[in-house]
Each structure stands twice: as structure tokens, then as C-alpha cells.
Amino acid sequence: MRSDNEHIQIELTNLGNRVIISDNGETADYLFVNGLDPDRSRIVHECINRIAARFSVAWSAGELSRESTVEGVAESFWKVLEAAREVGTLIYKKAHRAPRTFDEEVEKELIAHEFAYDSDFEVPGKSTVHRIRFYLNGNRNILIQPLTATSPHVARAKAKQLAFDWFDIEEGGGRYRKIAVVDNVKDPALWTEDAVSILETYSDNVVLWANKAEFSRILSERGQRR
């Protein structure tokens, strides 16, 4: 069992004179539902690789596994089991790291609701290429840009910059649903009516994080740009 009393399941596949011992991707799924995505976090991926190497097991396509002779099944089973147990403890190391950034808060919501996305997505505009923090692919075709500020002046400047990005992307022929996500939880006064109005003019949706339930509702809509 894992340290939170969740069972660890290991599968053995008989190939005649060889046996494949695997966690069937369950450990990666366990990390995912607890807010860690090995496919998108280089640090998490490297930690898993180190653990796998220590126990002499393979880590590939989200699966911990080891091929063994029939005679070596007991030892190989133990190695995969221990690797899965230790990889599972990464969720507790995450709990003691530095406070989560706002980008990570937004990403956590995307993961929690199982929205497929790309990070730091490059979008060509009429005058330049823009790097947008998240892109929801498939039939959603959504660009998402989280915004934080340290003062009303900075908030307005960031709103104007994103307004230009959205406008330039549109002028360049890009047809996306454009969503600005504003961190107004710690200090709502930073985001003045003027700054929010700029975002509302050029974005298809503006989400104030104080009402983050609206975020998942908007992303679940199948409608296109307004």
C-alpha cells in the first residue's frame, strides 16, 4: 500500500520463459490526479527517472516495468513495487515546495478537469509571434493567458499588452477563443475597472479567479468565439 493507504497494483504477464512486471501506468495516474503531470513537468519526469534507475526498472510512456526470467520474478516484482511506492511519495514532496505560482494554479485546474492542453504555445500574429501560456486543443481551440500584477499600473500595462497580443493574432488570421484569467484573489484592488475593461474588450472571456468555478464552466462549453 502507498503511504496514504491506497493499494498498489502490479501486473505480471507470462511470455513463456520471460515475465513482464508492470504497474500498468497506475502510478503515473496517481500522480496526475494529485496535481503532478510527469509528461508536462521536467522536474517530476527527472525524479521518476532517477527512482527507476535506482531500482533498475524501466520508465516509459507513463509505465514502470521490468522484464524478468521466471526464476527472477520475486526480485523483479519487489523492484517494480518499491519503485511505484517511492514515485508515489512525490506528491508529498510537492506539498513542501515553494508556494504555487498563479500559472500553476490555473494549470492545476486544467489537470483536475482533464482538459488536454499545450504549454507556452506559439501563435503567429500579423506583426510577430506570440507565446501564450496555455492552448486547449481539439475542437475547443482556446488560448488562455493567466495575468498577475503587483500594482494597478502593472495590471493596466499587462492588460494593454494582452489586448495587443489578441488583436495581432486576430489580424494575422488566427481564429481562437481567447481567455484572460485574472488573479484578483489576494488583492482585488490591483485590477481596476479600467484594466478589466481593456481585457473584456479584446478577450472572448475574462475570468476573475475569485470565481474560478466559472473557469471550468467556460472551458466545458463547446461554443466558439463570441
Number of strands: 9
Q: Name the strands of the widest sheet in spatial order.
A: 5-6-7-8-9
Mean pLDDT: 88
SSE topology string: EEHHEEHHHEEEHEHEH
For the record, what CATH class of the largest domain applies? Alpha Beta
**Which word captures the global form?**
elongated
CATH topology of the largest domain: Trna Endonuclease, Chain: A, domain 1
The largest β sheet comes out as: 5 strands, mixed
Provide the gyration radius in Å: 22 Å
**Distance N to C terminus:** 49 Å
Account of the protein in words:
- This protein has 226 residues and is α+β, with helices and mostly antiparallel strands.
- The protein has 2 domains: 84 residues; 119 residues, Trna Endonuclease, Chain: A, domain 1.
- Helix content is 41%, strand content 23%.
- The chain contains 8 helices and 9 strands.
- Strands 5-6-7-8-9 form a 5-stranded mixed β-sheet, sandwiched between helices. It has a 4-stranded antiparallel β-sheet with strand order 1-2-4-3.
- A hairpin with a 3-residue loop joins β1 and β2.
- α1 runs parallel beside α3.
- The relative contact order is 0.10.
- The mean pLDDT is 88.
